[in-house]
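Quick one, tokens below. Sequence please?
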């Protein structure tokens, strides 16, 4: 069981839910120590006082704010804990919103909220069921590590999850990063949509979603431990320059099909569709014109025949 990161309560109106906060994620990265390469001894970072030139134990270390180059204002942990903030002791729910209204760039690390004993089971379950039935997430404020933070509460497998969030003013405006406007053809956009359809799936299960770098590092360490050559790794291909965007899209679609065992034949996009339509429209017009000409000739012939058969009146 992961260790408790924070202990407090969820404040939901007048309802209080005592909880323990535990990390919802595991870090499987391979960790390295700094060593002296000549003798493989550990190289450690020591906390040394610049004035006394001696190593300082953690009990003598505190926080300080650099006011000027010469002056530092000390701030004690006890002072921060006693700050007059309601969020210092509780996760205060401020509002409920649809999850779709939250920009994912604001959402950070996730934590599981565990009810603190049997007394918290009923209000915890009440909040969980209310969140599930409302199809909304809760936006809350809480104070950790010397600052007030924004958070998002949602339900995952019958457990309430707290996601740390960034404040709106912490998100940089990306407007200046946007490229200049470029022209795309309808066929290029359609082929890109086709590629998205081919790469669409219902979950993130499979070999494609494994940490191959960590696996390679573990294989390297194992090989060195056994004094053998590490397994050969295929050299990754450097991305090439896109010369023909449509050809690149079509090839990507073909590879996506092949990965799913489908027919990977690249079919050329039909060309000059507009011209074909125009030709098709003109054909009936010609037939109509031909019918109109034939009809006119028939009418004229009938009139001539009628005149010929009609006897002329004699003048008196």
């Amino acid at each position: 069981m992961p260790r408790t990161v924070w202990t407090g309560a969820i404040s939901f109106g007048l309802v209080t839910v005592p909880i323990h906060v535990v990390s919802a994620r595991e870090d499987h990265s391979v960790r390295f120590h700094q060593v002296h390469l000549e003798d493989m001894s550990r190289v450690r970072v020591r906390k040394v006082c610049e004035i006394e030139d001696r190593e300082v134990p953690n009990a003598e270390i505190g926080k300080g704010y650099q006011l000027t180059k010469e002056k530092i204002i000390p701030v004690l942990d006890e002072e921060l804990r006693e700050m007059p903030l309601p969020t210092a002791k509780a996760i205060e729910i401020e509002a409920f919103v649809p999850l779709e209204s939250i920009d994912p760039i604001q959402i950070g690390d996730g934590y599981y909220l565990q009810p603190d004993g049997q007394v918290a089971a009923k209000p915890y379950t009440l909040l969980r069921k209310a969140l599930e039935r409302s199809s909304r997430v809760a936006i809350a404020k809480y104070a950790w590590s010397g600052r007030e933070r924004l958070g998002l509460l949602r339900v995952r497998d019958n457990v309430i999850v707290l996601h740390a969030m960034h404040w709106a003013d912490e998100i940089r405006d990306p407007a200046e990063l946007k490229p200049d406007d470029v022209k795309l053809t309808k066929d290029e956009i359609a082929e890109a949509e086709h590629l998205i359809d081919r790469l669409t799936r219902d979950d993130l299960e499979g070999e494609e979603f494994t940490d191959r770098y960590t696996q390679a590092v573990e294989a390297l360490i194992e090989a060195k431990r056994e004094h053998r050559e590490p397994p050969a790794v295929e050299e990754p291909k450097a991305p090439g320059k896109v010369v023909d965007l449509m050809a690149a899209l079509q090839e990507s679609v073909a590879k996506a099909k092949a990965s799913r065992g489908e027919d990977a034949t690249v079919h050329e996009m039909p060309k000059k569709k507009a011209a074909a339509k125009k030709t098709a429209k003109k054909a009936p017009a010609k037939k109509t014109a031909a019918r109109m000409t034939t009809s006119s000739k028939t009418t004229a012939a009938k009139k001539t025949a009628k005149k010929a058969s009609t006897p002329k009146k004699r003048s008196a």
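The radius of gyration is 38 Å. The longest strand covers residues 147-156.
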